[in-house]
Amino acid sequence: MARKKGKARKAARKNLPVNEDEFKKAPHTFVFHRGVIGKNLLQLMLDMRRVMEPYTAATLRSRRKNVLKDFVSVAGPLGVSHFISFSRSDANINMRIMRVPRGPTVTFRMRQYCLTKDIQSSLKKPNMYARQFQQHPLLVLNNFSKDQPELKLAATLLQNMFPSINVHKVQLSDIRRCVLFNYDPETKLIEFRHYSIKVVPAGMSKSTKKLMQNKVPNLGRYQDVSDFFLNAGQLSESEAELDGEHNEVTLPQAMASRGNMITQKSAIRLVEIGPRMKLQLVKIEEGLCQGEVIFHQFVSKTQDEVAAARNVRRKKKQLKENRKKNQDADIERKEQEKAAHRAKCVAGMLKKKGMDPTSKNETVTYEDDDDTEYYRKEVGEEPDPELFPQHQRGGPGGKRKPFKRDFSSSRKKFKGSSKPDTEEKGGKASTSKPFSPDKWNMKSTGRPKGRVMNKRTVGKGKPGMQGSKGKGKVHGGKGKGQVAKFKFKMSKSKR
Predict the structure, then answer these.
(1) How far apart are CA 172 and CA 255, in angstroms?
(2) Strands 28-34 and 465-466, how do they pair?
(3) DSSP state letters, 223-259
């Protein structure tokens, strides 16, 4: 029972929710590409998303028609602070890092890169597991001189892209990865590396470390267990000791791995995860890819050229603002015209009804459109239950659509018999008057006003007759010109 309780405690410790305040304060990133970049560069973009976890959109999807403005519009509600964009031209591959929403934008030219899968396949003992990506990585910046303003600005942007670490409250077991940016002053290139941090106990033999790490060795070649600990020649070349004073530290906290205890010496090892890149700082500009160029590696301008470019940019901005004002004024004017036209139409409707358009107390009332009552008046009998379902009539207390016109006054009423012919149960037809198309106004239109659902007519020598457009069919048959059965159904769409 105690063992089960310990497992439950460990599982609860793994799934501890991230503090909401810390999650909101942490910088979030979008990693996406612009244009067609190819299969390998697309995989590099996915590897970069893995580096930026957990504070990134791991499954972000973008379409070809999406523009930068679309990403900016959703960045604010989601708390996204940085964009990493990959693009490709005929000659170069570029990576842009943008600070949302006001910039700056730093453009890097990618000289070389290597994917994560290539790094993992080259290692004999890769150290990569899922729990590494539950915490953000540790950022290391090397050789970024503060004397050069462009390097200082680039270092500040990279530093703000990762969450800050409080050295007094941080848990060593949460630091599992490391991201390194190393600047080479000779080549002026920035090397990017991504490592996994591994802590192993120091001051003991390799054989003892194997037992501490729950790896049972093969002791079949030894007469006694002491031979295994004393014989150092049984180690393989890949397991040679690489630890020394350069990577041995005294742990201030207990670690989750075996053999690493507090106040004891342990060795810190870095195992590369990937990806790997060599970047060249090319350009720094204000805003999001459309501001004034602060630094350019290959292009230099005089003060007059910079002032002329600034004036052109200011004129474009002023022209855009004026266009926006004119569009807003046009929209407001059209809304006013639409409201005036609506008021004029309502006044005309009230005047046609004989009501005072200036009166505010009178309201327009329309009679409910009762299909059952209309059928009862025109045909003279009760309709079938399935002819007008309950949900179409609205049911008892149901709501009806307002402002429906009533066409009952414009329809011609049936001048014949008040009751249509019916069919007896025995199958014999019994009618009082023969069917007359003239009374249904078929001569002028070719079809009745309503929809006639009929089976057959009994009329010997009378040809069949069909309405226009395939509606309202009346077929002739044997008999003495009498109607066996028909149903009169008013189409709701025709009314």
Answers:
(1) 7
(2) unpaired
(3) SSHHHHHH--TTS-GGG-----TTTEEE-SS--SSTT
Query: Residue 324 belongs to what H/E stretch?
Result: helix 303-352
Q: Which residues contact 276 (CB under 8 A, 6 or more apart)?
A: 112, 113, 114, 119, 191, 192, 193, 194
**In contact, 198 and 268? CB cutoff 8 Å:** yes
Mean pLDDT by 10 residues, the chain (495 residues): 59 60 87 93 95 93 89 92 94 94 93 94 88 92 91 94 89 90 94 92 68 67 72 47 74 77 84 94 91 89 87 90 94 94 89 73 50 81 76 48 54 49 46 49 48 48 46 46 45 46
Cβ atoms of 379 and 411 closer than 8 Å: no
Tokens for 316, please give them: 């474009």
| Residue 319 Cα distances to 29, 68, 322, 329, angstroms | 33, 21, 5, 15
98 contacts: CB under 8 Å, gap ≥ 6: 82, 83, 84, 85, 104, 105, 106, 288, 289
User: Can you give the pTM of this predicted structure?
Assistant: 0.60
154: tokens are 């680039």
Place of tokens 């006001």: 102
Cβ contact 349:364 at 8 Å:
yes
**Residue 24, Cβ neighbours under 10 Å: how many?**
9
Bridge pairing between strands 189-201 and 265-272: antiparallel
DSSP E strands in 89-223: the ranges are: 93-99, 105-114, 138-142, 177-184, 189-201
Torsion on CA atoms 329, 331, 335, 341, rounded to nearest 10: 90
